[in-house]
Design goal:
Helix content: 55-70%
Number of strands: 8
Number of helices: 19
Largest sheet: 8 strands, mixed
Radius of gyration: 27 Å
Distance between the termini: 44 Å
Strand order of the largest sheet: 3-2-4-1-5-6-7-8
Oligomer: single chain
């Protein structure tokens, strides 16, 4: 994940100041040197690193420790504020008040522009309940139109496909006319990319911008491209009125230097971040939350938002009520596992733990083991009859053999699931005995 190694380095550096009573030049110099090296190794622009370190030094040296706040805590606050400022200070999401809101997507070929257009459409549709029109404006790249149409089908969003024998400028104008006539909330124009920046590409993009006057001109840049992303952003911004950037592949770049450099050097805010290959893997970019993650402070707000988006609150409450009342069966246990799967969707268990401050890291191997065990448990329960799921006490040896055979496992595996269920039931019974008379929990035991 982006900034992972940088975050580890920063957290180790800041821990070294524990026990100090004052921030001085002597105890700061080594820290600043390590911060400088960490940023440069993360591929942050040299000019940005120099200014960043100087700002920290100016704010930190000589500050007294106030109200039991340690120098380490004070420095964390200073570094955090500087990181937020570097990443963009204010979170700048696309303004959707205009109808239709016209978004023009641009970028180099191969950066994932067409897929990201689909991700953006999916985000607006699901999160804001907007009626979105995707516009196939890339008439040059083979299969670009077909790709966008397939994405549109997957997310149930209409795609305007006028073929590749019409000028992209005319396609964009017709898209705007259609959006106004048919009441679309958002229009996303997928423009053509090139393997390198050239005058023909830029002229076409300028003409589209002049004709449709988009509310947003978003540049997609690849986080894996390092400092080349800064040069691409500067080149596009010289010709177009860029309003923001989408940083793709932010999940795969352990260094993340481009994201830390690009806003400072170009003045263009990062509005969204691609964090995976699925069409759901696009997030609003929050500079303050990213700074929290880098410094190991977690990101509880994002965690709550993720859970709210992926969990059926009514179903979860009903399931918890049954469990706490002691009436739950293996179907309820299955529901709990499904809720867990939804909650970890996209991020995985390791990704969710990173959003909680102070949580230990979980290895990829351990995560895979946990997910494999979960799948085995679900397969065993699915191999049972409805009667067996409702009343596990009837599952004796002959039934265990049949269940094991049905899912390709052993009686030992079936016993493990039944033991797990019994432990859960016992724990719920203990909780009921402990809190059953507490008025705060009375609704849970009905």
């Amino acid at each position: 994940m982006a900034f992972e190694s940088l975050g580890d380095r920063f957290q180790a550096i800041l821990k070294k100041l524990k026990g100090q009573t004052r921030l001085t030049e002597s105890n700061m110099e080594e820290m600043l040197k390590e911060i400088r090296v960490a940023l440069l190794e993360a591929d942050v622009n040299f000019k940005v690193v120099k200014e960043f370190v100087n700002h920290i030094k100016e704010k930190a040296i000589g500050q007294e420790v106030l109200n039991k706040v340690s120098p380490g805590q004070m420095l964390v606050k200073i570094v955090h504020d500087e990181l937020v400022d570097l990443l963009g200070a204010d979170q700048c999401e696309v303004n959707l008040r205009n109808k239709p809101t016209v978004i023009m997507m641009c970028g180099l070929q191969g950066s994932g522009k067409t897929t990201t257009s689909g991700k953006l459409a999916n985000l607006f549709k699901k999160k804001f309940n907007k009626k979105v029109l995707l516009v196939a404006g890339d008439i040059y790249r083979p299969a670009a139109i077909d790709q966008l149409c397939q994405i549109g089908k997957q997310i149930d969003v209409e795609v305007l496909n006028l073929g590749n024998n019409i000028n992209p400028v005319d396609i964009s104008k017709k898209a705007l006319e259609k959006a106004k006539k048919e009441g679309f909330d958002v229009v996303i124009i997928d423009t053509a990319g090139r393997l390198q920046i050239d005058e023909v590409l830029m002229e076409e993009l300028v003409n589209i911008e002049n004709e449709v006057n988009p509310n947003e001109v978003l540049l997609l840049v690849d986080a894996m491209s390092g400092q080349d992303a800064v040069n691409v952003a500067k080149s596009f911004n010289e010709k177009l009125h860029l309003t923001g950037m989408i940083m793709s592949k932010l999940d795969g770049d352990a260094r993340g230097g481009a994201a830390l450099s690009i806003k400072h050097l170009t003045g263009i805010p990062i509005k969204y971040a691609g964090v995976g290959e699925k069409l759901e893997d696009l997030e609003v970019f929050h500079p303050d939350r990213m700074a929290d993650r880098i410094l190991g402070m977690g990101d509880v707000v994002s965690l709550v938002e993720h859970v709210q988006e992926n969990i059926d609150e009514k179903a979860a409450k009903k399931s918890v009520n049954k469990m706490m009342s002691g009436k739950f069966d293996l179907n309820d246990m299955l529901d709990q596992m499904d809720q867990y799967t939804k909650m970890t969707s996209g991020k995985g268990l390791a990704g969710l733990l990173k959003l909680l401050p102070g949580m230990p890291k979980i290895s990829e191997e351990d995560q895979q083991k946990a997910e494999k065990q979960l799948k085995k448990t679900k397969a065993i329960i699915y191999s049972m009859t409805l009667e067996e799921r409702k009343d596990p006490s009837i599952i004796k040896n002959s039934r265990k053999l049949r269940i094991a055979k049905g899912c390709g496992m052993t009686s030992y595996d079936v016993n493990r699931v039944l033991d797990q269920y019994d432990r859960m039931k016992k724990q719920m019974k203990e909780l009921r005995g402990r809190f059953g008379n507490d008025p705060r929990f009375k609704n849970m035991f009905k």
